[in-house]
Amino acid sequence: MDLPEGLRRAERVPIVRRRSRAGVLIVVIGAVMVLAHAAGFLVLMALEGREYSVVAAVYWAITTMSTLGYGDITFDSDAGRLFSLWVLLSGVVYMLVLLPFFVIQYIVTPWLDRRRTSRTPRKVPAPLRDHVLLVGSDAVTQAFAARAERSQVPAVLVVENPVEAGQLHDQGRQVVVGPLDSAMTYRNAGADRARLVVSTLSDTANTNVAFTVRQVSGDVPVAVTASKPVSVDVLGLAGSDHVLELGAVLGREMAGRVLGSTGRVHRIGSFGDTFIAEAAARGTALVGMTLGEALAELRPCVRILAVLRKGRLRPLKPELRITETTVLILAGEQEELAAYDEQFQAQEQSEDPVIVLGGGRVGRSASRELTDQGVPNTIVEQLPGRVENSYSALEGTASYSVVDGDAADQRILRRAGLDCASAVLVTPRDDDLNVYLTLFCRRLRPELQVVSRATYERNVATLYRAGADGVLSYATIGATDLWNHAGLSHRVLVAEGNELFLVPRPSSLVRRSVRDSEVHRRTGCHIVAVADEDGTLSYDTESVPSSPGKLLLLGDRHAERLFREAYLRRRRPRPTGRVGPPR
Prior knowledge:
Distance between the termini: 38 Å
Number of strands: 22
Subcellular location: Cell membrane
CATH topology of the largest domain: Rossmann fold
CATH architecture of the largest domain: 3-Layer(aba) Sandwich
Oligomer: single chain
Membrane topology: Multi-pass membrane protein
Number of domains: 5
Structural class: alpha/beta
Number of helices: 20
Pfam families: Ion_trans_2, TrkA_N
Main location: membrane
Shape: elongated
Low-confidence stretches: 1-13, 392-398, 571-583
Keywords: Membrane, Transmembrane, Transmembrane helix
CATH superfamily of the largest domain: NAD(P)-binding Rossmann-like Domain
CATH class of the largest domain: Alpha Beta
Strand order of the largest sheet: 3-2-1-4-5-6
Largest sheet: 6 strands, parallel
Radius of gyration: 32 Å
Protein backbone atom coordinates (compact mmCIF):
# COMPACT_ATOMS: atom_id res chain seq x y z
CA MET A 1 0.00 0.00 0.00
CA ASP A 2 2.96 2.30 0.33
CA LEU A 3 3.77 2.50 -3.40
CA PRO A 4 1.58 4.03 -6.10
CA GLU A 5 0.13 1.62 -8.62
CA GLY A 6 2.42 2.97 -11.37
CA LEU A 7 5.49 2.03 -9.38
CA ARG A 8 4.02 -1.37 -8.60
CA ARG A 9 3.45 -2.06 -12.31
CA ALA A 10 7.00 -0.92 -13.10
CA GLU A 11 8.37 -3.34 -10.51
CA ARG A 12 6.49 -6.22 -12.14
CA VAL A 13 8.25 -5.78 -15.53
CA PRO A 14 10.29 -8.97 -16.05
CA ILE A 15 13.99 -8.53 -15.51
CA VAL A 16 14.75 -10.53 -18.68
CA ARG A 17 12.75 -8.05 -20.77
CA ARG A 18 14.67 -5.10 -19.36
CA ARG A 19 17.97 -6.83 -20.06
CA SER A 20 16.89 -7.67 -23.61
CA ARG A 21 15.98 -4.07 -24.33
CA ALA A 22 19.38 -2.88 -23.15
CA GLY A 23 21.13 -5.58 -25.17
CA VAL A 24 19.22 -4.69 -28.35
CA LEU A 25 20.04 -1.00 -27.83
CA ILE A 26 23.78 -1.71 -27.56
CA VAL A 27 23.72 -3.95 -30.66
CA VAL A 28 21.87 -1.24 -32.63
CA ILE A 29 24.42 1.38 -31.55
CA GLY A 30 27.26 -0.92 -32.65
CA ALA A 31 25.65 -1.54 -36.04
CA VAL A 32 25.15 2.20 -36.59
CA MET A 33 28.80 2.85 -35.70
CA VAL A 34 30.00 0.18 -38.15
CA LEU A 35 27.85 1.55 -41.00
CA ALA A 36 28.91 5.15 -40.28
CA HIS A 37 32.60 4.19 -40.22
CA ALA A 38 32.20 2.17 -43.41
CA ALA A 39 30.61 5.14 -45.15
CA GLY A 40 33.47 7.39 -44.02
CA PHE A 41 35.95 4.80 -45.29
CA LEU A 42 34.38 4.79 -48.76
CA VAL A 43 34.39 8.61 -48.95
CA LEU A 44 38.05 8.98 -47.92
CA MET A 45 39.18 6.15 -50.21
CA ALA A 46 37.38 7.84 -53.11
CA LEU A 47 39.28 11.06 -52.37
CA GLU A 48 42.52 9.05 -52.60
CA GLY A 49 41.38 7.69 -55.97
CA ARG A 50 40.72 4.13 -54.81
CA GLU A 51 37.43 2.23 -54.90
CA TYR A 52 36.30 -0.57 -52.58
CA SER A 53 33.05 -2.50 -52.20
CA VAL A 54 30.59 -2.07 -49.33
CA VAL A 55 31.60 -5.48 -48.00
CA ALA A 56 35.25 -4.42 -47.91
CA ALA A 57 34.31 -1.17 -46.14
CA VAL A 58 32.36 -3.06 -43.45
CA TYR A 59 35.24 -5.56 -43.15
CA TRP A 60 37.74 -2.71 -42.63
CA ALA A 61 35.49 -0.97 -40.06
CA ILE A 62 34.99 -4.11 -37.97
CA THR A 63 38.66 -5.15 -37.99
CA THR A 64 39.77 -1.64 -37.07
CA MET A 65 37.18 -1.19 -34.29
CA SER A 66 38.10 -4.58 -32.80
CA THR A 67 41.85 -3.60 -32.87
CA LEU A 68 42.71 -6.63 -35.04
CA GLY A 69 44.10 -4.43 -37.85
CA TYR A 70 45.26 -6.97 -40.47
CA GLY A 71 46.94 -4.17 -42.47
CA ASP A 72 45.72 -5.38 -45.87
CA ILE A 73 43.72 -2.17 -46.37
CA THR A 74 45.30 1.12 -45.25
CA PHE A 75 45.05 4.83 -45.98
CA ASP A 76 47.84 6.79 -47.66
CA SER A 77 46.67 10.31 -46.65
CA ASP A 78 46.92 11.96 -43.26
CA ALA A 79 43.14 12.46 -43.16
CA GLY A 80 42.68 8.74 -43.67
CA ARG A 81 45.15 7.89 -40.93
CA LEU A 82 43.39 10.28 -38.50
CA PHE A 83 40.09 8.68 -39.41
CA SER A 84 41.61 5.25 -38.67
CA LEU A 85 42.66 6.45 -35.22
CA TRP A 86 39.13 7.73 -34.54
CA VAL A 87 37.61 4.39 -35.61
CA LEU A 88 40.14 2.51 -33.45
CA LEU A 89 39.48 4.59 -30.32
CA SER A 90 35.69 4.51 -30.72
CA GLY A 91 35.87 0.74 -31.15
CA VAL A 92 37.92 0.36 -27.97
CA VAL A 93 35.39 2.41 -25.99
CA TYR A 94 32.51 0.43 -27.48
CA MET A 95 34.16 -2.89 -26.67
CA LEU A 96 34.71 -1.80 -23.08
CA VAL A 97 30.94 -1.34 -22.83
CA LEU A 98 29.80 -4.26 -24.98
CA LEU A 99 31.81 -7.12 -23.57
CA PRO A 100 31.21 -6.39 -19.85
CA PHE A 101 27.50 -5.88 -20.50
CA PHE A 102 26.99 -9.17 -22.30
CA VAL A 103 29.19 -11.12 -19.89
CA ILE A 104 27.55 -9.68 -16.77
CA GLN A 105 23.95 -9.41 -17.97
CA TYR A 106 23.67 -12.63 -19.95
CA ILE A 107 26.11 -14.93 -18.16
CA VAL A 108 27.03 -13.81 -14.62
CA THR A 109 23.74 -12.23 -13.49
CA PRO A 110 21.46 -15.04 -14.78
CA TRP A 111 23.78 -17.57 -13.13
CA LEU A 112 23.57 -15.71 -9.81
CA ASP A 113 19.78 -15.41 -10.13
CA ARG A 114 19.43 -19.13 -10.84
CA ARG A 115 21.68 -19.91 -7.91
CA ARG A 116 19.69 -17.63 -5.59
CA THR A 117 16.40 -18.99 -6.90
CA SER A 118 17.51 -22.58 -6.41
CA ARG A 119 18.27 -21.78 -2.75
CA THR A 120 14.89 -20.09 -2.17
CA PRO A 121 12.38 -22.51 -0.60
CA ARG A 122 9.21 -23.30 -2.52
CA LYS A 123 7.66 -25.24 0.33
CA VAL A 124 7.60 -24.90 4.10
CA PRO A 125 8.59 -27.83 6.33
CA ALA A 126 5.74 -30.24 7.01
CA PRO A 127 5.91 -29.88 10.84
CA LEU A 128 5.44 -26.10 10.65
CA ARG A 129 2.08 -25.07 12.16
CA ASP A 130 0.39 -21.97 13.56
CA HIS A 131 2.51 -19.71 11.39
CA VAL A 132 1.42 -16.48 9.72
CA LEU A 133 1.51 -16.20 5.93
CA LEU A 134 2.38 -12.71 4.68
CA VAL A 135 1.55 -12.20 1.01
CA GLY A 136 3.73 -9.45 -0.45
CA SER A 137 6.71 -7.59 0.94
CA ASP A 138 5.63 -4.00 1.53
CA ALA A 139 6.29 -1.89 4.64
CA VAL A 140 3.40 -3.46 6.62
CA THR A 141 4.44 -7.06 6.04
CA GLN A 142 8.09 -6.23 6.68
CA ALA A 143 7.17 -4.60 10.01
CA PHE A 144 5.00 -7.62 10.89
CA ALA A 145 7.81 -10.04 9.98
CA ALA A 146 10.34 -8.12 12.08
CA ARG A 147 7.95 -8.14 15.06
CA ALA A 148 7.34 -11.87 14.60
CA GLU A 149 11.09 -12.51 14.59
CA ARG A 150 11.52 -10.63 17.88
CA SER A 151 8.63 -12.54 19.44
CA GLN A 152 9.77 -15.91 18.01
CA VAL A 153 6.50 -16.32 16.10
CA PRO A 154 6.91 -18.18 12.78
CA ALA A 155 6.07 -15.90 9.83
CA VAL A 156 6.44 -16.86 6.16
CA LEU A 157 6.57 -14.34 3.33
CA VAL A 158 4.90 -15.48 0.09
CA VAL A 159 6.60 -13.72 -2.84
CA GLU A 160 6.13 -14.11 -6.57
CA ASN A 161 9.45 -12.70 -7.77
CA PRO A 162 12.24 -15.31 -7.33
CA VAL A 163 14.98 -12.66 -7.18
CA GLU A 164 13.15 -10.69 -4.47
CA ALA A 165 12.46 -13.93 -2.61
CA GLY A 166 16.15 -14.76 -2.73
CA GLN A 167 17.07 -11.38 -1.31
CA LEU A 168 14.60 -11.79 1.55
CA HIS A 169 15.88 -15.30 2.17
CA ASP A 170 19.44 -13.98 2.35
CA GLN A 171 18.23 -11.48 4.98
CA GLY A 172 17.09 -14.37 7.18
CA ARG A 173 13.35 -14.25 6.39
CA GLN A 174 11.30 -17.39 5.89
CA VAL A 175 10.14 -17.23 2.27
CA VAL A 176 8.08 -19.29 -0.14
CA VAL A 177 8.24 -18.32 -3.81
CA GLY A 178 5.43 -18.99 -6.28
CA PRO A 179 2.59 -17.40 -8.27
CA LEU A 180 0.26 -15.51 -5.94
CA ASP A 181 -2.80 -16.63 -7.92
CA SER A 182 -1.96 -20.35 -7.71
CA ALA A 183 -3.53 -22.59 -5.08
CA MET A 184 -0.41 -24.77 -5.15
CA THR A 185 1.65 -21.86 -3.78
CA TYR A 186 -0.53 -21.66 -0.68
CA ARG A 187 -0.58 -25.45 -0.28
CA ASN A 188 3.21 -25.42 -0.35
CA ALA A 189 3.15 -22.56 2.19
CA GLY A 190 0.94 -24.61 4.56
CA ALA A 191 -2.08 -22.30 4.43
CA ASP A 192 -4.29 -25.06 5.83
CA ARG A 193 -2.07 -25.21 8.94
CA ALA A 194 -1.54 -21.45 9.31
CA ARG A 195 -2.77 -19.21 12.11
CA LEU A 196 -3.54 -16.35 9.72
CA VAL A 197 -3.05 -15.33 6.08
CA VAL A 198 -2.32 -11.63 5.53
CA SER A 199 -2.32 -9.90 2.14
CA THR A 200 -1.37 -6.23 1.73
CA LEU A 201 -1.42 -5.93 -2.07
CA SER A 202 -3.79 -3.79 -4.15
CA ASP A 203 -7.54 -4.27 -3.63
CA THR A 204 -7.93 -6.33 -6.81
CA ALA A 205 -4.89 -8.51 -6.03
CA ASN A 206 -6.14 -9.04 -2.46
CA THR A 207 -9.47 -10.24 -3.85
CA ASN A 208 -7.70 -12.85 -5.98
CA VAL A 209 -5.50 -13.93 -3.05
CA ALA A 210 -8.51 -14.40 -0.76
CA PHE A 211 -10.33 -16.48 -3.39
CA THR A 212 -7.26 -18.61 -4.01
CA VAL A 213 -6.58 -19.22 -0.30
CA ARG A 214 -10.20 -20.32 0.15
CA GLN A 215 -9.55 -23.08 -2.42
CA VAL A 216 -6.89 -24.46 -0.09
CA SER A 217 -8.64 -23.98 3.26
CA GLY A 218 -12.05 -22.75 4.22
CA ASP A 219 -11.14 -22.35 7.88
CA VAL A 220 -7.91 -20.34 7.97
CA PRO A 221 -8.57 -16.67 8.86
CA VAL A 222 -7.74 -14.27 6.01
CA ALA A 223 -6.93 -10.60 6.72
CA VAL A 224 -6.41 -8.10 3.91
CA THR A 225 -5.93 -4.38 3.51
CA ALA A 226 -8.21 -2.11 1.48
CA SER A 227 -7.35 1.27 0.03
CA LYS A 228 -10.93 2.16 -0.96
CA PRO A 229 -14.09 1.94 1.16
CA VAL A 230 -16.03 0.44 -1.77
CA SER A 231 -13.64 -2.52 -1.76
CA VAL A 232 -14.49 -3.65 1.78
CA ASP A 233 -17.68 -5.51 0.82
CA VAL A 234 -16.08 -7.11 -2.24
CA LEU A 235 -13.12 -8.36 -0.22
CA GLY A 236 -15.53 -9.80 2.32
CA LEU A 237 -17.40 -11.65 -0.44
CA ALA A 238 -14.07 -13.02 -1.68
CA GLY A 239 -13.55 -14.79 1.64
CA SER A 240 -11.70 -12.26 3.80
CA ASP A 241 -12.50 -12.42 7.52
CA HIS A 242 -10.87 -9.10 8.40
CA VAL A 243 -10.57 -6.10 6.07
CA LEU A 244 -8.29 -3.33 7.30
CA GLU A 245 -9.04 0.00 5.64
CA LEU A 246 -5.65 1.33 6.59
CA GLY A 247 -6.17 4.95 5.54
CA ALA A 248 -9.32 5.26 7.63
CA VAL A 249 -7.73 3.52 10.63
CA LEU A 250 -4.68 5.78 10.46
CA GLY A 251 -6.91 8.86 10.33
CA ARG A 252 -8.89 7.73 13.38
CA GLU A 253 -5.70 6.94 15.29
CA MET A 254 -4.28 10.37 14.50
CA ALA A 255 -7.50 12.02 15.63
CA GLY A 256 -7.37 9.97 18.83
CA ARG A 257 -3.93 11.41 19.58
CA VAL A 258 -5.30 14.97 19.67
CA LEU A 259 -5.16 15.86 23.33
CA GLY A 260 -7.50 18.82 23.12
CA SER A 261 -7.67 21.65 25.56
CA THR A 262 -10.04 20.35 28.25
CA GLY A 263 -7.98 17.51 29.75
CA ARG A 264 -10.41 14.79 28.70
CA VAL A 265 -9.41 11.13 28.43
CA HIS A 266 -8.74 9.50 25.04
CA ARG A 267 -8.86 5.71 24.92
CA ILE A 268 -6.13 4.18 22.78
CA GLY A 269 -6.53 0.46 23.56
CA SER A 270 -7.30 -2.16 26.15
CA PHE A 271 -6.01 -5.27 27.91
CA GLY A 272 -8.93 -7.41 28.97
CA ASP A 273 -11.34 -5.21 30.91
CA THR A 274 -8.68 -2.58 31.48
CA PHE A 275 -8.65 0.39 29.14
CA ILE A 276 -5.47 2.23 28.22
CA ALA A 277 -5.96 5.95 27.72
CA GLU A 278 -4.00 9.15 27.45
CA ALA A 279 -4.92 12.49 28.96
CA ALA A 280 -3.27 15.87 28.66
CA ALA A 281 -2.53 17.66 31.89
CA ARG A 282 -3.20 20.97 30.12
CA GLY A 283 -6.15 22.78 31.65
CA THR A 284 -6.44 20.49 34.70
CA ALA A 285 -5.62 20.85 38.38
CA LEU A 286 -2.73 18.39 37.89
CA VAL A 287 -0.52 21.08 36.37
CA GLY A 288 2.07 22.12 38.93
CA MET A 289 1.79 18.93 40.99
CA THR A 290 4.65 16.49 41.38
CA LEU A 291 4.11 12.95 40.16
CA GLY A 292 4.02 11.72 43.76
CA GLU A 293 1.20 14.15 44.59
CA ALA A 294 -0.67 13.15 41.43
CA LEU A 295 -0.36 9.46 42.26
CA ALA A 296 -1.87 10.05 45.68
CA GLU A 297 -4.68 12.04 44.06
CA LEU A 298 -5.44 9.45 41.36
CA ARG A 299 -4.87 6.16 43.17
CA PRO A 300 -8.55 5.64 44.05
CA CYS A 301 -9.55 5.73 40.36
CA VAL A 302 -6.82 5.14 37.79
CA ARG A 303 -3.16 4.17 37.57
CA ILE A 304 -0.45 6.17 35.79
CA LEU A 305 1.51 3.82 33.55
CA ALA A 306 3.81 6.37 31.92
CA VAL A 307 4.43 10.06 31.47
CA LEU A 308 5.14 11.60 28.08
CA ARG A 309 6.41 15.04 27.23
CA LYS A 310 6.79 16.07 23.58
CA GLY A 311 6.41 12.44 22.56
CA ARG A 312 9.22 11.22 24.84
CA LEU A 313 9.00 9.08 27.96
CA ARG A 314 9.88 10.65 31.28
CA PRO A 315 11.11 8.67 34.29
CA LEU A 316 8.38 7.96 36.82
CA LYS A 317 10.06 9.74 39.71
CA PRO A 318 7.94 11.20 42.56
CA GLU A 319 9.64 14.58 42.17
CA LEU A 320 8.78 14.88 38.45
CA ARG A 321 6.80 18.10 37.93
CA ILE A 322 3.66 17.94 35.75
CA THR A 323 3.53 20.78 33.24
CA GLU A 324 1.15 22.01 30.54
CA THR A 325 2.87 19.76 27.97
CA THR A 326 2.73 16.60 30.08
CA VAL A 327 0.67 13.66 28.81
CA LEU A 328 -0.39 10.92 31.23
CA ILE A 329 -0.81 7.32 30.05
CA LEU A 330 -3.57 5.92 32.26
CA ALA A 331 -5.03 2.47 32.92
CA GLY A 332 -8.42 1.78 34.42
CA GLU A 333 -11.85 0.35 33.84
CA GLN A 334 -14.57 2.31 32.09
CA GLU A 335 -16.09 3.64 35.30
CA GLU A 336 -12.68 4.67 36.64
CA LEU A 337 -11.80 6.64 33.52
CA ALA A 338 -15.21 8.29 33.64
CA ALA A 339 -14.49 9.28 37.24
CA TYR A 340 -11.18 10.81 36.15
CA ASP A 341 -12.99 12.85 33.50
CA GLU A 342 -15.55 14.02 36.02
CA GLN A 343 -12.85 15.06 38.47
CA PHE A 344 -10.37 16.77 36.13
CA GLN A 345 -11.98 17.60 32.80
CA ALA A 346 -12.99 21.22 32.32
CA GLN A 347 -16.66 20.54 31.66
CA GLU A 348 -17.65 24.15 31.09
CA GLN A 349 -14.91 24.74 28.54
CA SER A 350 -15.36 23.84 24.87
CA GLU A 351 -12.62 22.24 22.81
CA ASP A 352 -10.41 24.49 20.73
CA PRO A 353 -10.49 23.71 16.98
CA VAL A 354 -8.08 21.38 15.20
CA ILE A 355 -6.54 21.94 11.76
CA VAL A 356 -6.22 18.95 9.43
CA LEU A 357 -3.63 19.44 6.69
CA GLY A 358 -4.61 17.34 3.68
CA GLY A 359 -8.02 16.22 2.46
CA GLY A 360 -7.11 12.69 1.38
CA ARG A 361 -8.45 9.48 2.90
CA VAL A 362 -6.44 9.88 6.08
CA GLY A 363 -7.35 13.55 6.49
CA ARG A 364 -11.06 12.99 5.87
CA SER A 365 -11.12 10.05 8.29
CA ALA A 366 -9.42 12.15 10.97
CA SER A 367 -11.87 15.00 10.41
CA ARG A 368 -14.82 12.62 10.62
CA GLU A 369 -13.54 11.19 13.92
CA LEU A 370 -13.01 14.65 15.39
CA THR A 371 -16.50 15.66 14.27
CA ASP A 372 -18.00 12.60 15.97
CA GLN A 373 -16.21 13.63 19.17
CA GLY A 374 -17.66 17.13 18.91
CA VAL A 375 -14.29 18.76 18.18
CA PRO A 376 -14.50 21.57 15.59
CA ASN A 377 -11.95 21.16 12.83
CA THR A 378 -10.84 22.70 9.55
CA ILE A 379 -9.47 20.79 6.56
CA VAL A 380 -6.83 22.54 4.45
CA GLU A 381 -6.77 21.01 0.95
CA GLN A 382 -4.85 22.24 -2.06
CA LEU A 383 -7.21 20.73 -4.68
CA PRO A 384 -10.49 22.70 -4.75
CA GLY A 385 -13.62 20.56 -4.46
CA ARG A 386 -11.83 17.41 -3.33
CA VAL A 387 -13.24 17.34 0.18
CA GLU A 388 -16.72 18.57 -0.71
CA ASN A 389 -17.23 15.91 -3.36
CA SER A 390 -15.90 13.00 -1.37
CA TYR A 391 -16.67 13.87 2.24
CA SER A 392 -19.08 16.68 2.98
CA ALA A 393 -21.55 15.36 0.43
CA LEU A 394 -21.75 12.17 2.49
CA GLU A 395 -22.25 14.00 5.76
CA GLY A 396 -25.11 16.17 6.89
CA THR A 397 -24.36 19.07 9.14
CA ALA A 398 -20.94 18.77 10.72
CA SER A 399 -18.70 20.95 12.84
CA TYR A 400 -15.93 21.21 10.27
CA SER A 401 -15.01 23.63 7.54
CA VAL A 402 -12.80 23.53 4.46
CA VAL A 403 -10.14 26.00 3.33
CA ASP A 404 -8.75 25.59 -0.20
CA GLY A 405 -5.09 26.45 -0.60
CA ASP A 406 -1.49 25.43 -0.02
CA ALA A 407 -0.84 24.34 3.57
CA ALA A 408 2.73 25.64 3.23
CA ASP A 409 1.35 29.19 2.88
CA GLN A 410 1.26 31.05 6.18
CA ARG A 411 -1.72 33.12 5.04
CA ILE A 412 -3.75 29.98 4.32
CA LEU A 413 -2.98 28.56 7.77
CA ARG A 414 -3.93 31.83 9.43
CA ARG A 415 -7.21 31.82 7.53
CA ALA A 416 -7.82 28.23 8.68
CA GLY A 417 -7.54 29.38 12.30
CA LEU A 418 -3.98 28.49 13.24
CA ASP A 419 -3.82 31.21 15.90
CA CYS A 420 -6.65 29.69 17.95
CA ALA A 421 -6.14 25.99 17.15
CA SER A 422 -5.13 23.45 19.78
CA ALA A 423 -3.53 20.97 17.38
CA VAL A 424 -2.53 20.33 13.76
CA LEU A 425 -2.76 16.96 12.03
CA VAL A 426 -0.30 16.56 9.14
CA THR A 427 -1.80 13.86 6.89
CA PRO A 428 -0.32 14.04 3.32
CA ARG A 429 1.24 10.91 1.83
CA ASP A 430 4.59 12.55 1.03
CA ASP A 431 6.99 12.21 3.98
CA ASP A 432 9.20 15.05 2.70
CA LEU A 433 6.19 17.37 2.66
CA ASN A 434 5.18 16.22 6.12
CA VAL A 435 8.62 17.07 7.53
CA TYR A 436 8.36 20.51 5.92
CA LEU A 437 4.83 21.18 7.26
CA THR A 438 5.70 19.90 10.74
CA LEU A 439 8.71 22.19 10.98
CA PHE A 440 6.69 25.10 9.52
CA CYS A 441 3.81 24.74 12.01
CA ARG A 442 6.18 24.29 14.93
CA ARG A 443 7.96 27.54 14.07
CA LEU A 444 4.70 29.46 13.64
CA ARG A 445 3.32 28.29 17.02
CA PRO A 446 5.83 26.54 19.30
CA GLU A 447 3.17 25.58 21.87
CA LEU A 448 0.93 23.88 19.27
CA GLN A 449 0.42 20.12 19.36
CA VAL A 450 1.53 18.59 16.05
CA VAL A 451 0.63 15.01 15.11
CA SER A 452 2.20 13.87 11.86
CA ARG A 453 1.81 10.92 9.55
CA ALA A 454 4.75 8.87 8.24
CA THR A 455 4.47 6.55 5.28
CA TYR A 456 7.84 4.92 5.95
CA GLU A 457 9.24 4.03 9.37
CA ARG A 458 12.65 5.42 8.45
CA ASN A 459 11.20 8.96 8.49
CA VAL A 460 9.71 8.75 11.99
CA ALA A 461 12.83 10.00 13.76
CA THR A 462 13.14 12.86 11.28
CA LEU A 463 9.56 13.97 11.96
CA TYR A 464 10.21 13.95 15.69
CA ARG A 465 13.30 16.08 15.17
CA ALA A 466 11.24 18.45 13.04
CA GLY A 467 9.01 19.09 16.07
CA ALA A 468 6.18 16.55 15.95
CA ASP A 469 4.62 15.67 19.31
CA GLY A 470 3.37 12.38 17.91
CA VAL A 471 4.05 10.37 14.77
CA LEU A 472 2.06 7.45 13.39
CA SER A 473 3.13 5.39 10.38
CA TYR A 474 1.30 3.14 7.95
CA ALA A 475 3.66 0.28 8.70
CA THR A 476 3.23 0.33 12.48
CA ILE A 477 -0.54 0.89 12.45
CA GLY A 478 -1.08 -1.90 9.93
CA ALA A 479 1.31 -4.35 11.59
CA THR A 480 -0.19 -3.71 15.06
CA ASP A 481 -3.78 -4.22 13.87
CA LEU A 482 -2.92 -7.43 12.02
CA TRP A 483 -0.80 -8.66 14.92
CA ASN A 484 -3.66 -8.25 17.37
CA HIS A 485 -6.10 -9.85 14.91
CA ALA A 486 -3.81 -12.88 14.66
CA GLY A 487 -4.38 -13.49 18.38
CA LEU A 488 -0.72 -13.05 19.23
CA SER A 489 0.55 -11.05 22.21
CA HIS A 490 -1.76 -8.05 22.39
CA ARG A 491 -0.24 -4.62 21.83
CA VAL A 492 -1.32 -1.03 22.27
CA LEU A 493 0.46 1.66 20.30
CA VAL A 494 1.11 4.67 22.54
CA ALA A 495 3.15 6.59 19.98
CA GLU A 496 5.45 5.68 17.13
CA GLY A 497 8.37 3.96 18.79
CA ASN A 498 6.53 3.28 22.08
CA GLU A 499 4.26 0.26 22.51
CA LEU A 500 2.62 -1.49 25.44
CA PHE A 501 2.97 -5.27 25.15
CA LEU A 502 2.69 -8.35 27.34
CA VAL A 503 5.49 -10.87 27.95
CA PRO A 504 5.73 -13.93 30.25
CA ARG A 505 7.07 -13.22 33.72
CA PRO A 506 10.75 -14.14 33.82
CA SER A 507 11.75 -16.12 36.90
CA SER A 508 14.82 -13.89 37.31
CA LEU A 509 12.58 -10.89 38.03
CA VAL A 510 10.43 -12.53 40.75
CA ARG A 511 10.05 -10.32 43.84
CA ARG A 512 11.74 -7.39 42.17
CA SER A 513 10.03 -4.02 42.19
CA VAL A 514 7.79 -3.22 39.24
CA ARG A 515 9.71 0.07 38.95
CA ASP A 516 13.08 -1.71 38.89
CA SER A 517 15.47 0.69 37.17
CA GLU A 518 17.98 -2.07 36.36
CA VAL A 519 15.61 -3.55 33.76
CA HIS A 520 15.36 -0.18 32.05
CA ARG A 521 19.10 0.40 32.15
CA ARG A 522 19.78 -3.04 30.72
CA THR A 523 17.11 -3.21 28.02
CA GLY A 524 15.36 0.15 27.67
CA CYS A 525 11.98 -1.38 28.60
CA HIS A 526 9.79 0.01 31.38
CA ILE A 527 7.82 -2.49 33.52
CA VAL A 528 4.56 -0.62 33.96
CA ALA A 529 2.24 -3.28 35.43
CA VAL A 530 1.77 -6.93 36.35
CA ALA A 531 -0.91 -8.95 34.56
CA ASP A 532 -2.64 -12.29 35.11
CA GLU A 533 -2.53 -15.11 32.56
CA ASP A 534 -5.63 -13.74 30.81
CA GLY A 535 -4.09 -10.27 30.50
CA THR A 536 -6.02 -8.61 33.34
CA LEU A 537 -3.85 -5.90 34.92
CA SER A 538 -3.16 -5.83 38.66
CA TYR A 539 -2.98 -2.24 39.86
CA ASP A 540 -1.81 -2.66 43.45
CA THR A 541 1.09 -5.05 42.88
CA GLU A 542 4.37 -3.28 43.56
CA SER A 543 6.64 -6.32 43.03
CA VAL A 544 6.71 -9.16 40.52
CA PRO A 545 4.92 -12.19 42.04
CA SER A 546 6.20 -15.73 41.71
CA SER A 547 2.91 -17.09 40.36
CA PRO A 548 2.55 -17.61 36.59
CA GLY A 549 1.47 -14.53 34.71
CA LYS A 550 2.68 -11.73 32.49
CA LEU A 551 4.38 -8.36 32.62
CA LEU A 552 3.15 -5.26 30.81
CA LEU A 553 6.15 -3.52 29.23
CA LEU A 554 6.55 -0.20 27.49
CA GLY A 555 9.31 0.29 24.94
CA ASP A 556 10.34 0.33 21.31
CA ARG A 557 11.30 -2.62 19.09
CA HIS A 558 14.98 -2.46 20.03
CA ALA A 559 14.18 -2.47 23.76
CA GLU A 560 11.81 -5.41 23.27
CA ARG A 561 14.49 -7.40 21.48
CA LEU A 562 17.00 -6.69 24.25
CA PHE A 563 14.50 -7.70 26.96
CA ARG A 564 13.69 -10.98 25.25
CA GLU A 565 17.38 -11.76 24.77
CA ALA A 566 18.22 -10.87 28.36
CA TYR A 567 15.31 -12.46 30.24
CA LEU A 568 13.24 -14.79 28.05
CA ARG A 569 15.55 -16.68 25.71
CA ARG A 570 17.37 -19.70 27.04
CA ARG A 571 21.09 -19.61 26.53
CA ARG A 572 22.36 -22.36 24.30
CA PRO A 573 25.29 -24.40 25.65
CA ARG A 574 28.58 -23.58 24.00
CA PRO A 575 29.66 -26.39 21.66
CA THR A 576 32.87 -28.23 22.58
CA GLY A 577 35.45 -30.02 20.52
CA ARG A 578 35.36 -27.64 17.58
CA VAL A 579 37.07 -24.44 16.59
CA GLY A 580 35.51 -21.49 14.85
CA PRO A 581 32.19 -19.75 14.89
CA PRO A 582 29.00 -21.72 15.52
CA ARG A 583 27.08 -23.02 12.57
